Every structure is written in C-alpha cells, then in structure tokens.
C-alpha cells in the first residue's frame, strides 16, 4: 500500500530512483478503483476519517463543517496521483502536493483539472517545499519507502508551521504485516509486486522516537485494521498498519 514517491537516489530524505520508476509506471491507472491502485481507494475512507477526526480535535473545529481546513495550508508529501490531495482541497485547504514521479504529477494535474480543483502539484522531493511551512503536513504510506527515515521525518518537521499538525501512516513491522501485505497481497496481485520491503517498515515506538528527535510530540496513535466484514477500518490494533498525529514539542 503506498501513495507515492518523494525523491530520487540523490536525496536521502525520500525514496530512490527505482521506487520512483516503480510507482511512475502505475500512474495511468491510479484513479481506476479496480486497477493497480485499488487498495488505495479502499484505504481512503478510513484515512479521511482519521484525518478529519484529528483536524477537528487539533483546531477545535465544527464537526459539521464541510470545509474544516478553510484558511489552512496543507502539504501532501508523496502524493501519487492525488487520491488524498483532492479531498484535502475539498475540505477547504490550500493544497501543495509533491511527488518524485513526473508521471504521477501529470496524472494528478489532469484529474484535478477535470474536476475543477486548484492544487499546486510539484515534481520533486521534500526540497520542493524547502523554506515553506504548512498548517497541516500529511504523508500517508510513504515513509516505508524512504532510504533514510530519520532525514525524511526531519524534513517534514521543518515544513510544519508553528501550531501545525503532522499526520503519518505506515505499516508496522510485524509478522502480520509481512504475511498480509507481502506474502498475500503482493503474491496474488492485490498490490503490485515489489511495492514493499518489510525490513524498512517502522514500529510505532521507532517512529515516535524519530518524531521526538525532530522536535515533535506524538498526540495520537491509531491502528488501521482489516476484516472481511468491515474492510479497512480504524481500530486500537496497530499490528498491520497505523497512523500517528504529532505536533511541535
């Protein structure tokens, strides 16, 4: 499961050129809910539910509002073809979205234009937003693809404005995630082969430590689970995949 690519081989704070090429090949099919990115489409409802919950909690927002991010700047790092960027824009944010694969950004721009959304899509890495800060920084299913997770977290922290909110999601490094996401999902083609390297998965404690070293404090951790009856859903079980919300310490 991944949204994307965020760098080239020359930048340690994002994934390497092979990763960019892998996801770039999937760009044309990204918005097909039954295509190679079908898993991401199934992940979006719980991801958006978690994002909305944390946004409302952080800014003490009106839970009935359709645009809780109005007046806020949001960064979607490793945006793929925009499956999360577009909902962020619909929630009222001024969205900047970055991906290393030009094919992904091309697909993202075309889709946003077709549905009438203005999103600042950029080809590149965390360097593409160097010196800029955002109220909300989101990077879902990306950090497991970077060669240097510490450098990546440090770069994301630098992009977070005072009083801002950082949201991450990533698979946990457990026997369950290896079985479910690599042996089964990649084995049967639910996820394209070669998408994941289990050894690069981070545990919640490891990620919390990286965030603390970058000057951030985790305020919430939530599991993403799967069951045949409920599909992907938020839970207290972090064994498969999980979210973290962090703020400046």
From TrEMBL:
Residues binding S-adenosyl-L-methionine are 47, 78, 99, 140
- Catalytic reactions of this protein: a 3-demethylubiquinol + S-adenosyl-L-methionine = a ubiquinol + S-adenosyl-L-homocysteine + H(+); a 3-(all-trans-polyprenyl)benzene-1,2-diol + S-adenosyl-L-methionine = a 2-methoxy-6-(all-trans-polyprenyl)phenol + S-adenosyl-L-homocysteine + H(+)
Give GO BP annotations, semicolon-separated. methylation
The EC number on file is 2.1.1.222, 2.1.1.64
Name the InterPro entries on file. SAM-dependent_MTases_sf, UbiG_MeTrfase
Which EC class does it fall in?
transferase
Protein name, UniProt field: Ubiquinone biosynthesis O-methyltransferase
UniProt lists the family membership as follows: Belongs to the methyltransferase superfamily. UbiG/COQ3 family.
Signal peptide start and end residues:
none
User: What domain of life?
Assistant: Bacteria
* Molecular-function GO term, any one: 2-polyprenyl-6-hydroxyphenol methylase activity
Q: Does the keyword Transferase apply?
A: yes
Q: Tell me which NCBIfam families the record gives.
A: UbiG (TIGR01983)
The alphabetical list of record keywords is:
Methyltransferase, S-adenosyl-L-methionine, Transferase, Ubiquinone biosynthesis
User: Which pathway is it part of?
Assistant: Cofactor biosynthesis; ubiquinone biosynthesis
The entry's function note states: O-methyltransferase that catalyzes the 2 O-methylation steps in the ubiquinone biosynthetic pathway.
UniProt keyword Methyltransferase present:
yes
């Amino acid at each position: 499961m991944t949204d994307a690519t965020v760098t080239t081989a020359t930048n340690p704070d994002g994934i390497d050129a092979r990763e960019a090429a892998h996801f770039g090949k999937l760009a044309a099919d990204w918005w097909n809910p039954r295509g190679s990115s079908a898993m991401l489409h199934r992940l979006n409802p719980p991801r958006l539910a978690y994002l909305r919950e944390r946004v409302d909690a952080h800014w003490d927002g009106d839970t009935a509002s359709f645009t809780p991010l109005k007046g806020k700047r949001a960064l979607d790092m490793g945006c793929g073809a925009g499956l999360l960027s577009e909902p962020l824009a619909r929630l009222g944010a001024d969205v900047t979205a970055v991906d290393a694969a030009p094919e992904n950004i091309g697909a993202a721009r075309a889709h946003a234009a077709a549905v009438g959304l203005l999103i600042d899509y950029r080809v590149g890495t965390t360097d593409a937003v160097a010196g800029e800060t955002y109220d909300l920084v989101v990077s879902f299913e990306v950090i497991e693809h970077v060669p240097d997770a510490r450098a990546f977290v440090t770069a994301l922290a630098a992009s977070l404005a005072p009083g801002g909110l950082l949201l991450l999601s990533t698979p946990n490094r457990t026997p369950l995630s290896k079985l479910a996401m690599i042996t089964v999902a990649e084995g049967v083609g639910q996820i394209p082969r070669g998408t994941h390297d289990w050894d690069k998965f981070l545990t919640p404690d490891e990620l919390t430590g990286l965030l603390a070293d970058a000057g951030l404090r985790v305020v919430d951790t939530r599991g993403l689970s799967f069951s045949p009856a409920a599909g992907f859903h938020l839970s207290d079980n972090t064994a498969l995949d999980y979210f973290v919300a962090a703020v400046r310490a």
